[in-house]
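Trying the structure run again after the queue cleared.
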Amino acid sequence: MRPWMIIAGLTLAGIAAAAGAVLFFLWDTDWRWRPHPIDKDQDSIAQALDTSGWVSPRLTGPKLYIVVYRNCPACVTFEAAELPRLEKADVDTRIVVIARAPQNGQQLATPAERATVAELWINRSWKLFQQWSLAAPGTWTAPGIAPADGDAARTAVVAAGQRMVTDLTHDLADNGVAFDYPMLVWWTRDGRMRACACTDARMWKYVDQELAPP
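Done. Tokens:
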């Protein structure tokens, strides 16, 4: 092989490696954290969220659905850091609290959690959500709230939330989004549907850019 061919091959390999490194850098620092456009199953996703037991401060700006379970670490961190900023920008933060379904025969939600979720879905009290949010993890006893366990109607409400998560998981997967908590779904100011499994704080600035710009 002629020397110039070896040099050309090495040069091309170097260029390809550099390009790959640049692309990985852009993916790792930017692209991987951006929200996903939702192009499929839009009606199904919107209906599931709109008919859920969401609670909100009833603001007049863009709607942002936030699916959480109580004491989810990423959810608690997001709520503390981002809800005041979003609400200041008049974003209607619609919180959908879920009592997670059992796994392998083990309950993931406490009786107090199931009771409170049922109450939120039935009576849609933003004040109750705020009170629950202020309670230290593990200390909430659902004071004055009717139990869900042993009450067929309230148990059905809790189960409806769990089915909603199953449906959303399927529909969002069709759009390349892996469901996780907190799960955010919103519409940009120009009407595009977006979603973010916002488990990492590096994702939040993109939500702010679309919904609560400076």
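The domain at 36-211 is CATH 3.40.30.10 (Glutaredoxin). Worth checking whether this holds up in the mutant runs.
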